């Protein structure tokens, strides 16, 4: 295959025309000229962004369902003797750790782009530890709650929302471990680092979703 070949952009949306007006950080998620043959990173990031958009629709459906149920069952939302999820210091610390990990993983990716592989490894490992801390914290919180999955609407909605998000956090940690292991393969990232970039984007997505869930479950 000729690596200089340019695929014709047959999209009904003139992405290339609009692309020039986008900020640099956003251009990385769009393929060039319909996808240059050598632009594997751009095409990969665009496809992964579309995947995350589909994931966001699933989360939005859960969130809208929660809001609708909360509004229509405001009088009997909590069963007798149930206090519901509480905004404790432990929950706040776990949230701060998770959200702070977005800055850490972004610095790790920036280090990888500058070929600072050791710095990338340490920052990447730190992100793994922060994500693991959040998961352990969520497990501890679940074990101390005074309601279960079958305890009315508050139980079913809380565990579904936090559990589904927790699965995404777990997936993100697994992806990070895989990328960290791959960094020890000689010259692995010299050919590109789509995996690390996609994992970073996925982690930002997980953190943004938690901001909405935290606000709904603990502040409302």
Automatic annotation (TrEMBL):
Its main location: membrane. Keywords: Cell membrane, Membrane, Transmembrane, Transmembrane helix. GO terms for cellular component: plasma membrane. It is a multi-pass membrane protein. It holds the Pfam family COX3. InterPro entries: Cyt_c/ubiquinol_Oxase_su3 (IPR024791), Cyt_c_oxidase-like_su3 (IPR000298), Cyt_c_oxidase_su3-like_sf (IPR035973), Cyt_c_oxidase_su3_a-hlx (IPR013833). One of its GO terms (biological process) is aerobic electron transport chain. It is found in: Cell membrane. Residues 46-220 form the Heme-copper oxidase subunit III family profile domain. CDD domains: Heme_Cu_Oxidase_III_like. SUPFAM superfamilies: Cytochrome c oxidase subunit III-like. GO terms for molecular function: cytochrome-c oxidase activity. Belongs to the cytochrome c oxidase subunit 3 family. This is Heme-copper oxidase subunit III. It comes from Anabaena sphaerica FACHB-251.
């Amino acid at each position: 295959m000729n690596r200089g070949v340019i695929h014709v952009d047959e999209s009904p949306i003139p992405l290339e025309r609009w692309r020039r007006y986008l900020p640099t950080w956003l251009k990385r998620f769009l393929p060039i000229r319909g996808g240059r043959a050598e632009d594997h990173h751009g095409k990969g990031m665009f496809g992964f962004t579309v995947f995350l958009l589909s994931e966001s629709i699933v989360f939005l459906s859960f969130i809208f369902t929660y809001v609708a149920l909360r509004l229509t069952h405001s009088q009997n939302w909590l069963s007798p003797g149930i206090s519901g999820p509480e905004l404790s210091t432990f929950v706040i610390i776990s949230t701060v750790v998770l959200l702070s990990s977005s800055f850490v993983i972004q610095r790790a990716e920036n280090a990888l782009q500058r070929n600072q592989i050791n710095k990338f490894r340490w920052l990447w490992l730190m992100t793994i530890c922060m994500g693991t801390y959040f998961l352990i914290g969520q497990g501890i919180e679940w074990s101390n709650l005074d309601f279960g999955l079958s305890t009315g609407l508050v139980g079913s909605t809380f565990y579904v929302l936090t559990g589904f998000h927790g699965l995404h956090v777990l997936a993100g940690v697994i992806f990070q471990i895989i990328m960290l292991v791959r960094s020890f393969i000689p010259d692995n990232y010299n050919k590109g680092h789509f995996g690390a970039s996609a994992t970073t984007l996925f982690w930002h997505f997980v953190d943004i979703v938690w901001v909405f869930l935290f606000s709904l479950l603990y502040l409302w």
